[in-house]
């Protein structure tokens, strides 16, 4: 595989098991098929057409580094695209949950100010910690998406011969 090429791997939407381009399961764990493309755009169009015909299939477009790094693109059927945790709905949901956890934590901390209530303090601390976990999750998803975009741009430069 040349550095300017990309590979498309196929997997099942439900269980992520490897599949053939026709969405057929492999008989042995060592079997696998990938298709090589000279351009990411060509691979993306092929994958979009394939998943429209076979909704249970997920296509991963990888650069020449293969599985050493996350895929450049993951193409799913449009009906299942909202299941992606990097989408705007999931992002809003994570931020909303974190905000509500912080509000509940603040309310529980204020209850503790009126009297010694260790349960309120314990619950408030946990709400704040869980809220921080949701914010960290949001940061990690955004960072992963930004890294993916940078790698996709770098691959585009390699395809054009700019690198």
Folded structure, characterized:
- The protein is α+β, with helices and mostly antiparallel strands and 163 residues long.
- It contains three helices and four strands, in the order ββαββαα.
- The chain is 52% helix and 12% strand.
- The protein has a four-stranded antiparallel β-sheet, with helices on one face.
- The mean pLDDT is 86.
Write the layout of secondary structure elements.
Blueprint (H helix, E strand, L loop, with lengths): L5 E7 L21 E4 L2 H14 L3 E6 L10 E3 L12 H27 L3 H43 L3
Antiparallel strand pairs: 1-2, 1-3, 3-4
Helix pairs in contact: 2-3
Summarize the structure.
With 163 residues, the chain is of the alpha+beta class. It has two domains: 6-83, no CATH class; 88-160. It contains three helices and four strands; from the N terminus they run ββαββαα.
Biggest sheet statistics = 4 strands, antiparallel
- Major sheet strand order: 2-1-3-4
Mean pLDDT: 86
What class, by secondary structure content?
alpha+beta
Q: Indicate the proportion of strand residues.
A: 5-15%
Q: Would you list the SSEs in sequence order as H and E?
A: EEHEEHH
Low-confidence stretches: none
Rg over CA atoms, rounded to whole Å, is 22 Å
From the N-terminal CA to the C-terminal CA, the straight-line distance is 17 Å
Number of helices: 3
Helix content: 40-55%
Question: Would you count the extended β strands for me?
Answer: 4
Number of domains: 2
The shape is elongated
